[in-house]
Fold this protein.
Amino acid sequence: EEAWNSAAVMEGFTVIDGSYPVDQTSARMAYDDTNVYILIINHQRVLDPALQKLDEFRATITKHDDHVYQDDSVEVFISPDGDRSMQFVLNALGTRFESAGGDVSWNGQWDAACKVNDGNWIAEIRIPWATLPKECRNGFKFNICRTQVADSQYSAWSPPEVSFSNAARFATCRLADKPVSVRAPGMMESLLAQSLTQLSIIADAGGSKYTLAVDIASEGAELHKPMRDTSAKGNHSFALMFAKGSRHRVQYSASDTDGEVIFRSPAYFVTRRMDQSASVSLTAGELMSVLLNGKRQANHEAILLQPGLNEITIECIRPADGGEIQGQLRAAAGAGTPEVVLPIDERWPSKPCKDAQSVVMSGRIAVATSQFHPVARDNTLYIARGLAQHAPFIVVNPTREVSQITVQIDLPPELELVGIDRLIRESKGNYPKNGKILATRAVESGITGRKRYEFEFENVQPFSEWFNHIHALVFKTASEAPGPFNVYYRMEGSNQSGPFAETWNTLKVIPLEIPAARRPERLRTTLWHGFRTGGYNAEETNALVKTFADVGFNSYIDRTSAHDRPEIRSNLLNALYENNFYVIMEISPAFFLGRMAGANPAQASVDFNGKRPHHLPLRPGFMLNDGADEIRKHITHIMKATGAPASLWDLEFPPFSTCDVSEATLKEFAAFARLSKTPTAEELKTTYRKQWIDFMCNVWAGLARIYKEGTKAAGADLATWLYSSYPGESFKERYGIDWSLMKGHVDVAAMGYATPTVEQLSTIRAINATSNCGVLYFEDSTPDQYRLLKTSMIRRVAQGGDGVSLFTWVLLDGRAYGLLAQAFGLMADHEDFFLDGRRVKPVVRGKAPVDNIYVMQLGQRRLVVAINESTKPTSAAIDLGKLCRVRDYYTGAESRVRTLQIQVPSCDVKAYEVDFPSK
C-alpha cells in the first residue's frame, strides 16, 4: 500500500466518444528492475448494496483466454513503438486474457489480483519486463481501458476515439528515477457540469523543482497557459479563462528544470456556453417570488440558467375569481437563436400554501441536454455541397423516462429536408425498441425564411451514450451558398414530474466542395451500409445513390432485406442499376434458418447455455443434408427476384457461441473426430477444443457450398461473396473461418478485422478466389476515423487486394465523401499497377517506415505509394538505382533523379510515377 502512494497517478478517464463516464476510474503505475506494476480502482455505483443493483455487475467468465472483455473488466495495452501492442484483460474474478499483435493464442506471463468492495472494485496487475519487448525498457506507449456492462460504457485514460486497440492514441510512459505524482481530483465533476473555471492540481515530484502548466486552446490556437514554478508538494490552484460559446481543449502538465515533460494529462474538452436566461410572467395570478434549483432569484425577468435540468419554482397568488394560474416561462440561448416559451398552467405540478389563495408551482427548463450524432464533440456537421446525402438528426436523450417527447429542428433556407413524412427512425444500444414515433410534421418556424419540423415520440427511456436518431435526406444542398449555416434543435415533453422544455441548441453546418472523382472500372470500390435506405421515393433514392457514384463507389452491398420488401426493392435496386452499380445481395443465414427451425422444431439447435443461437437456429446435420435443398431454393429465389449479379453472407460465428451441442450433433462430431465415444458438451471446450473448432469450420464451409449452388442455379455467371476475417489460426476460433476449406465455394473473399499480409492473400488465391481485400469499418465519426479513412482505403489495395469495401455504421458526411473521392481517384488512375503490377521491395535509405511504402512495377514503369498514418509529417529517400523520370501524381511536377525524396504530410498519401530508362 505504501508503494502505491508514491506511484504515478492517472485520473479523468473519458468514454470513447469523448464524453465522461457515469463512474470514474483511477490508476497508478510503478516499476522496478523485474516488473511493471499497475493499480486500477474502478468506482461502480451498482456495487453499492444500498442501490440493490448488484445483479447488474457482471463477473461471469472463469476460463483463461475466454471472452473476459464481455464482463466488467479492465484492459492494459502496452506497445514499444505505437504500432504492435500487447493486450492484458482482467475481470473482477481475476480471470485473464492476453494477446499480442492480435494473436489471441499468445500467452505471455503476468499475474493479477482483484478485490470487490462496496462501491468499487480494485485490480492489481504485475507484468514482468521479460514478457514485454526489450525496447520497452526505454519507455513505451500504453493505455488503460475499462468496460462497464451496466451502463454500456467503454472508457480509457488516453481517449482512444475509435477502439481500445487504437495504438495511435496511446499515451507515452517515460521511466523516471524519482516518482512523479500529478492529479486534478475535482476536474471531472467540473467538466460534467460545464463549470470549469478553476483547476486544483495536487503534485509531488519528490522534492525536485518542477513547473506546472495548464494549456487552454480553442480551434487549434492557444488561448491561455498559466504556469507555476515550484518544488512544493501539495495543492496548486489555477484560475482559468475561456471564451464563451467556444469549445476548448484543457490539458495540464509538469516539466523538470530542463523543460522535459515529466507528466502530461490527456486532453479534455469543455464548452463555455453563451449565457442562457429565462423570465417568468403571469397573465392570471400575482407572482410573489421565483426560485431556481431552490435558490431565490432577485430578478424574475433575468434568471441565469445552468447546463442540465433547471427546476423553476414560483410562489404566486391565485386570481381573485378563483381561476387557474396562467403565464409563460420564456428562455433564450443568446442573440439569433429562437426563443422557447413554456406555458405556465395546470400541467405544472403545484401544491397549496397555508392560506388558500397562495400556491407553489414548479416547471423545468433544460439547457444543452440533447446531443447531435455524430458530431456531439465539436458541434459541427460537414456536408457535401450540391449533393444529396443522409443527414443524422436529433439524438433524443432525456435524463428520465418520458411518456411523450417532441423533438424540433429548425433549418436555414440553404438546406432542404425531404421525405419528412417518411423519415427513418433508428436506435442503437441498450434500448433497440426505445420509444415509438407517433408523428412527423412541418410547423411554422417563427424566423423568416427558415423551416421547422417536429418529431413526436412516446415512452422514451433514459440512456447514456447510446442514442436514438432520425435519418433524413438533405437534398440538392444549395451549391452556391458559401456557409456556414446554423441549425437549431431542441426537445420538450412531459413525465410524472410534469412538463419540461429545452432551450435551443445550435449546430454549425459547413458545406465542403467534393473533388471530382473517377470511378475505378476494374477495382471493386464497394459501399456496405449498416443502416436502412428505405422510406424515400424514387427521385430521392436515385439522388442519394448518385452521390455514392459521384464520389467513386462502383459496387454496393445491400443489407436492407430489400429482397423481402418489394416497395423498397424497386426504388433502391432501380437506382443502383441506373447508376451502373455492381450489386451484391447480402443474404443472412439467420433470415431463412430461423424460419426453417420454426417449421422443423425437432431440428432446432441448442448452444452451451441451453438456448437457440440466433445465427445457427437449425441443427448443422439437418441444415447441410435434408434442409439443403430448401436453402438453395431460397437463395435462388432471392437472386432471381432482385437481378443482383452476386450474393454475400457474413461469417463471424465463433465455434463456442454460435454452435449446436444437441445430442445428434455431438454424435456427428464424434464421427468427424473419429472418437470412440460421444463427448459431453463441456469436453468440447477442453479435451476436444481444437477438433470442435475444425468441425464448426467444416459446417460453415458446407453452408458456403450450398450458397454457391443456390446462387449459380439463378445464373451460371453469378458470383458468391463471403465476408469474414483474414486467414489465420487464431481467426478460426474467433470467427469460425478456415479459408483453406472454401476452395470451390467462394468467388470473392471479402476480409476484415486485420491488416492483410502476402501470405494471407496467397491463401485466398490458393482457393481460386479473388480478394475484395480489407473491409474497412467506419464505426463512429471521430477525428481518428476521418484521419485514417483515405490512407486505410489506399493501403488495402496497395497491399494486393482486388478491391476495397467500406462498411459504415454511421452516415457519411462531407469530410468522408471528400477523402473517399481522393482515394478512389488514385485507384482509378492506376488500376493497372494495383491489379497487374508486380510488388517490388523498395530500397529505402535512413529510418523511414518501409512498411508504409509500396512499389508496383509494370514493365519499365513503377508506381510508388507512400502512406503516413501518423499525426506528424514523415519523409523517406528511395534509391532507384538509375537516373529515372519521376512525376509527382498530385502536383504534376516532373524531375530526373536517382534518389526519390518523399515528403508525406500527416495522415495523407503521396504517389509518384517512375519511368526507368529502357537500357
Observations:
- The chain has 16 helices and 59 strands.
- The CA atoms of residues 354 and 360 lie 11 Å apart.
- Confidence is low (pLDDT under 50) at residues 423-434, 463-469.
